[in-house]
Amino acid sequence: MKIFIVGGAGYIGSHMVKLAFLKGYDVITIDNLSTGHRDAVKYGKFEECDILDKEKLKKLFDKYTPELVIHFAAFSIVSESMNEPYKYYNNNVLGTLNLLKVMIDNNCKKIIFSSTAAVFGNPEYLPIDEKHIKRPINSYGKSKLMIEEILTDFEKAYGLRYVILRYFNACGHDKDGELIEKHNPETHLIPLIMQVVNGKREKIDIYGTNYNTEDGTCIRDYIHVEDLCEAHLKSIFYLNNMKNKSTDFNLGNSKGFSVLKVIETIKNVTNINFKVKESKSREGDPSILIASNKKAKEILDFVPKYDSIESIIKTVVNCKN
User: What is the full DSSP assignment across 15-82?
Assistant: First the structure.
């Protein structure tokens, strides 16, 4: 089966490229390398292309005729989305519209879409299931929700079938040490702390200590990148069964850990103390985000292998890359 992995040079995308290739899929990575890394694409074929370039997308679909698309490509920094909303709506929404139009024109009608917990905004109850009201509080989350709604319209009008996967906090490293998390700039908590541990950063900032949580810091549901990729693989099987309807899944561990808990765990695992600084909270950050993965377990048979913050952090600490 021939698959386009759009945004496959990024953190999660590159892990998915590896897994899909090793499972026997004919994988073609499409990425504009604006935030991805060419050296992260270690398997399959690679084509440099921006999803805003509809004409080049058309040529690539003509060249390869993929049967399914996994769509990771997006800008995803919450704070930046609040300062530069045009950038987010243009790339995330318009770029996806381009991709979907070319897919339909080429009779490629299966897509797995990377969404986010940010579509929910501040939770009204926990854990957050798929039926929770979607009221995003930042432009990034709004752009992803727009795409979710576009997908439902495309299904009705054009017969597009989709699986929406909403990530909570993706983290961890490839167990083989081939792939690591290396955003530029880095904004994710665990790799930022590891930069401090490794002497590449002076301190770790805690953005907000007055949230309505036990220790005053944000609580997030951390999910290992390899577990996320396994969920994508199961979603391919799901879409290949034509009896299955388009649907959505929240992907997390259904456990929450505060910023301070993550910091404490890394100190314990590494046996290294480091400087921590309290800073003001950032606009657009909900206090608590914890997923219910009940639906994914029941329908996809999705069970995270890395089910503790310690097991996730050890894959980062033990990585020699």
Answer: HHHHHHHHTT-EEEEEE--SSS-GGG--SSEEEE--TT-HHHHHHHHHHH--SEEEE------HHHHH
